[in-house]
Structures are given as C-alpha cells and as structure tokens.
Amino acid sequence: MFASVGAGGLALALTACGGGTDTAQSAGTASESSAPQSGAPQSAAPQAGGALAKTADIPVGGGTIFKDQKIVVTQPTSGEFKAFSAVCTHNGCTVGSVSDGVIVCPCHNSKFAIADGSVKDGPADKPLPAQQIKVEGDQITLA
Questions:
Q1: pLDDT values of the chain reduced to their tens digit, one per residue, 143 residues
Q2: For the chain, which terminus, N or C, has the lower number of CB atoms within 10 Å?
C-alpha cells in the first residue's frame, strides 16, 4: 500500500513540475496565453527569432511562462520587458506562476524577482539566468 501511495505522490509531483501550457499571470490570476505556436518541434533551448507573444499579453507587474521554450517574460513596469530561464536554479523544476512581483517555483516555493530574476525567498540560492528578447512594436521575440 505504501508503494502505491509513493508512486501516486511521485506522479503528482511530476505533474506539478510539468505541463505545456503558457500562462499569463498577475496578482495571483492566470489565463491562457495567446502566444503564437510554430509548427517546428520545440527544443530544450530557446530558439533565436522565435515569436513569443504580443506586449499586451504580458501583464504589468506580472509575467507569462512559456513552458515549451523554458522561458518566463515579465513586465516589471509599464513598457519594460525582461526574460529569464523558467528552470528553477534550486532543483530544475519549471517555475509555475508569476504574481505579486515574484516568479514562484511550485516544487519548493522558491521565489524570484520579476525585475532581475534575483532570489527573493529560497531554498534556491542562485538567480534565474537572464534570457535575451527583442521587443519590436507590439511583438516580443527571442533574440
């Protein structure tokens, strides 16, 4: 009986770290992103020039997690866009939400600042690495 509970718990933990939907989040709310999808297979590393979203899709004070590209794009202040790796520096889980000015990892609740990716609350002790993006007009693409 213990083995089946453990396996179920493992499946639940893996489900919490996985998923392929993109979400836009601000002040604790989430919605489906309308980010364009390419027909090409996704690789583990972000692809330069790949379209991510429109600027209007990234909430001020929040951000959007692109799980397939393993990137999170934030808008700390109006018109200022930042991008970071969506892979938590603590244990390698994909971050799960963006709210109240922080990016949160669901595995151990590490929190990172949306302005610079710095650790706001551990157990992570390293910031999320910055990623390069370009904002041209209302389009955000990978640089």
A1: 444 444 444 333 333 444 343 444 444 433 333 333 333 333 344 556 678 899 999 999 999 999 999 999 999 999 999 999 999 999 889 999 999 999 999 999 999 999 999 999 889 999 999 999 999 999 999 88
A2: N
Ordered by where they begin, the domains of the chain are 2-142 (2.102.10.10)
Beta bridge partners of 53: 140
Amino acid in the structure at residue 27: A
Which tokens go with 28? 């604790």
Separation between Cα atoms, residue 114 and residue 94, nearest integer Å: 15
Tell me which amino acid residue 74 is.
T
Residue 121, strand partner residues: 111
Distance CA 46, CA 15 (A): 22
For residues 29 and 68, give the distance between their C-alpha atoms in angstroms, rounded to a whole number. 21
Alpha-carbon dihedral sign for residues 32, 53, 62, 106: positive
User: Which of 10, 139, 24, 8 has the alpha carbon at shortest distance from 74?
Assistant: 24
